[in-house]
Amino acid sequence: MDFRFTEEQEQLRAVLCEFARRELLPHYAEWDRTGAFPRHLWREMGRLGLTGLRVSPQYGGSGADCVTTGIAAEEIARGDFNAAYAVMLNALLAEVLEAHASDAVRREWLAPMASGERLVAIAITEPGAGSDVANLAARAVRDGDRYIITGEKSGISLASVADAFVVFAKTQADAGARGVSAFLVPRETPGVEVHRYKDMGNVAIGRGSVFFDHVEVATDYRIGEENRAFYQLMKGFDLSRVLICLQCLGAAMQSLDETAEHVKRRHAFGRPLAQFQGVAFPLVEYYTKLEMIRWFSYRALWLRDRGLPHTKEASMCKWLGPQVAAQAIHESILLHGHYGYTKDLPLEQRLRDVIGLEIGDGTAQTQKIVIAREWLGKPYKPR
C-alpha cells in the first residue's frame, strides 16, 4: 500500500495552498456579505486549470485523475468554500458531457467550461422530488427534431449565474427511473426563468429555482440515450459526493488550524488555552476524525481512477464528511469564545456554507440507503 501523492500532486497542492491563502481567503466573506458572484475567480481558476481538471486535453482541459481533482477541491475550500464548487461541479459535469453529450454539445461547451468562461449547473431536484429522481414531475415531450420541456427545478446551485443547465426530466411518464432523460438547456432559451433564494449560506453560489415553460431544445442537446439518464449519468455523482466530502474537510481543517493557533496564543489562569485538556482534547478528536475521513476519501477516488466499484465508499464520504466537518467548525467557534460568534472571523460563514452540503447531492439518509443497498444487497434496502 502506497499512501504517497506523486511529486506533481504535491507541487499542485503547494501552488493551490498559496493561491487559496493569498487570493481567496481574504475575500471569502466579501461575497457572502454582498451576495455578488465572483465570476472573475472562476476565470482565474480556469487559468490555473482548476475548472478543467476532468476535461480532456482535446477540449482544453488537463484530463487530471480523480485523486488530483480531490486535492484541488480540498485546498481551494480552505480559502473559499464556495469557490471549490468550480472544481466539484465542473468535474461532475465534464465527465457527464464528455461521456454522453453529442459532438456538437461537447465542442460548444467543454472548452469554455474548462477555461472558466462559461458556467453550467445541474438541475435535478424538484419541490416534490429531491433524492427520488425516479419520480420527477418535469416533462420533456418529443416533437420531431426537438423536445419541449415543462417543469420546475429547485435548490439548484449556480441557478442565478449559470449559462446553461443540465436538466433531468421524464420522457416516459410511467416508467420510473427507466423514463428519465437529460438535456443541456442554455439559459437564454425562451421559456427559462430563474428565481434566486435567500439562503443562510452558500450565498455567492446563487442557489434558486429554475422554471421551464414549454422550453424547446434540439435533440442534439439531449445528454445520453432517451430514458437512460438515470443509469448513464447518475454514476457521475460517485465522484461529486467524494469531492464534496473533501471540500467540507478543507473548510473544517482550515478552521481547526486557525483555532489551534488561537488557543496557543490566548492565555487563561497563567497558561495557554492549549494546555487545558478541555480545550486540546476536542481539537485533537476532530483532527483525528477529519484525517481518517480524508484518507478514506482519497481511497474512494483511487478506486474510481482504477475503474473499481466505489458507490458505497462515495456515499460513506458524503454523509459522514459534511456532518463531522460541521461539528468541527462548531467546536472551533466555541473555542474562540464570544469573538468566534462574531462575523469578524470566517468560522460562522464556514458553518453555514458546510451545512448546505449536508443537504446537496443527497442527504445523509439517502446515502445510508445507498450504503445498505450496496452492502446488504438490494432485497434488504431500507425503505
Structural commentary:
This protein has 383 residues and is an alpha+beta fold. It has 3 domains: 112 residues, Butyryl-Coa Dehydrogenase, subunit A, domain 1 (Orthogonal Bundle); 107 residues, Butyryl-CoA Dehydrogenase, subunit A, domain 2, CATH 2.40.110.10; 148 residues, Butyryl-CoA Dehydrogenase, subunit A, domain 3 (Up-down Bundle), CATH 1.20.140. It contains 12 helices and 10 strands. It has a 4-stranded mixed beta sheet with strand order 1-4-5-8. The protein has a 4-stranded antiparallel beta sheet with strand order 2-3-7-6, with no helix packed on it. The chain has a two-stranded antiparallel sheet with strand order 9-10. The model has no long low-confidence stretch (mean pLDDT 94).
For this entry, give a set of tags.
Butyryl-CoA Dehydrogenase, subunit A, domain 3, Butyryl-Coa Dehydrogenase, subunit A, domain 1, single chain, 383 residues, globular, Butyryl-CoA Dehydrogenase, subunit A, domain 2, four-stranded mixed sheet, 15% strand, four-stranded antiparallel sheet, alpha+beta
